[in-house]
Every structure is written in C-alpha cells, then in structure tokens.
Amino acid sequence: MVSKKQKQIAFRREQIFTLLSRGMTQRAIANQMGLDTVMVSRDVAAIKENIKQQISTYYEDILMMEVFKSIRCLDLCLSNAVEISENADNNKDRLSAINAIVGIIASRIDLITAREVLNQNVSAITEAAQQQRGNHDIEVSNQQPQKFGDVNPDFVGAAS
C-alpha cells in the first residue's frame, strides 16, 4: 500500500520532471516550488534513476523479445526462400528467390548488429546506475511501471 507521504513525493517528482522538461534549472524549480535545492537535486537523481530502470526494463522485457521474434520470422522466410530457389522451374523464379535470400540475410545481420549495440548501451546504463547507487543515499523501489513512461506512485526515494 502506498502511504500518503509516498504519494506526495511521487506527485512532487512529477511536477519537478515537468518543470525540468520545460528547461528550468534545479535552482529555479526549487524557488518556484518553495523547496530546498538539495531536495530538488535528490528528486532529480531519483527521477533519472527511475528513467534508467524503465529504459532497461523496456529493453529487456519488450524490445529484446521483438528482436528475437523478428529474427525467427526472418529465419522462416529464409528457409522458404531457399526452398523456392532450389525447386524453381525457371531462372527468373530462382533469381527472385536468391535476391530475397540476400535481402533476408542483410536484414538479419542488421537486427543482430542492432541487438549488440543495444546490449552495450543497456550494460553501460546499468553499470552507471549501479555506480550512482553506490554514490547516493537514495532508496529506490524494485517495482516497475506497467508500461514505459508510466508514473508509478510506488517509486519513491528517501525524502530526507
């Protein structure tokens, strides 16, 4: 159950995030909201951590599954194109199938390469988040929003 204080912190962080996205500085946000700059700074750090976790979760849970499904689909298309090229009655059909094979292989390579780049990026984000957690006294909930970008009222850091 989410406490009243946790809801207040989540609401305050949503307001801070909105003001940040409008280009305001942390000092200006603190002045406008009547908060201490240290509190705003902690909230900004917690917001950044939450965004990193959401990106990582989105990548691991959704994007990777889509990449794997796409690779599997390309493999099935490749198998069919090879079969067509081997059983074609004329050179035109055989060349069309071979052209499809080349395109499918190129698409598969693009997907695999993109997956490796995404893996590297997520590893870097995860490593940075772990280092940042070691440098701050911010406690972050393990619960994740249902969809990328959703606000989770259970996400709170230490409000001290």
Overview in brief:
The chain is mostly helical and 160 residues long. It has four helices and no strands. The chain has one domain.
Radius of gyration: 24 Å
**N/C terminus separation:** 21 Å
SSE order, one letter for each helix or strand: HHHH
Mean pLDDT, to the nearest integer, reads 80
The share of residues in extended strands comes to under 5%
Tally of separate domains? 1
Structural class: mainly alpha
Overall geometry:
rod-shaped
Helical content stands at: over 70%
Number of strands: 0
Main beta sheet, described? none
Uncertain segments of ≥5 residues (pLDDT<50)? 136-160
Secondary structure tally, helices: 4
What labels describe this entry?
160 residues; mainly alpha; 4 helices; 0% strand; rod-shaped; disordered C terminus
Structural description of this entry:
The chain has 160 residues and is mainly α. The protein has helices at residues 4-21, 26-33, 37-87, 91-135. It contains 4 helices and no strands. Mean pLDDT is 80; it is low at 136-160.
Topology at a glance:
Elements: H1 4-21, H2 26-33, H3 37-87, H4 91-135
Helix pairs in contact: 1-3, 2-3, 3-4
